[in-house]
Amino acid sequence: GRFRRGGAGTRGGSAMAAGRSPPTFLLLGAAGGGKSLLVRPGGPGRARGGRGARPHPAVPVPVPVPQVGTNLTDLRLPRRVTVRELGGCMGPIWPSYYSECSALLFVVDASNPTQLSSSCIQLLSVLSAAPLASVPVLVLFNKIDLPCYMSLVEMKSLFRMQDVVACATQPITMLETSARDGTGLAEVLQWLRSALREPC
């Protein structure tokens, strides 16, 4: 389950040589939610320590730059998939990528209450898109390592997730994560593997 980062011209590999692209998972969410850190190769918390493993205190954690544009990351689950991360500022053109989407990850900053309303609107817009009507969705409440984060219960209530799940046509899963210290990433990988087994 190691993440490998690539640019828009990601190496095609055997799947491209065979004329068949790997499945594409979309990684969406408002700017500053922690999407880039989730797919950073060898990032913090990916040591064998597992859940909550922290980097050595003497090793500075790089500050991610907000993603402007799109970035491709290869994942081995062990089947190869491509994760397409779209910057939060690209929200107006997200729909142009929906048709190639096999699964969707939507990241919410659980430490930023001022961003919740816009994130909720974005999520509802994504869920109502016709090309994504049957695509499995993972909502990640990220940055739970920060002291000001809101719990999963609070986030579900503020997002009215019970109503959202009841009205949505997609199967929706929710997880708490910290891309910085690795909490919840094992569960994310488990969900990604199960999404690959979903019938198309």
UniProtKB/TrEMBL annotation:
This protein's UniProt keywords: GTP-binding, Nucleotide-binding
Gene3D superfamilies cross-referenced by the UniProt entry: P-loop containing nucleotide triphosphate hydrolases
Annotated region (Disordered), positions in chain: 38-65
Domain of life (superkingdom): Eukaryota
Coiled-coil portions: none
Binding site for GTP: 88, 142-145
Pfam families (alphabetical): Arf (PF00025)
Keyword GTP-binding applies: yes
GO MF annotation list: GTP binding; GTPase activity
Protein name: ADP ribosylation factor like GTPase 16
